[in-house]
Design goal:
about 70 residues, mainly alpha, 2 helices, about 35% helix, flat
Amino acid sequence: DKVLSRLKAIRGGKLNTAEFGSRMRGEGIFADQIRDLFRVSLKKVGLAKEGPELSTAHFRRPGGVQLDLL
């Protein structure tokens, strides 16, 4: 019951929401605490940095017709 009530608090009173863009987001004080804890943990293990800039310069578009899937 405690876990379910926390989930409802994070999701605006609902246990589950199927709205586009809201499934992996939360609101309220508990969601803020989880977000802050995650950011601190990323810094602690050295993953808070931006990744390298990616380039598509080496991508070669295959020529000819598309192959069959099966």
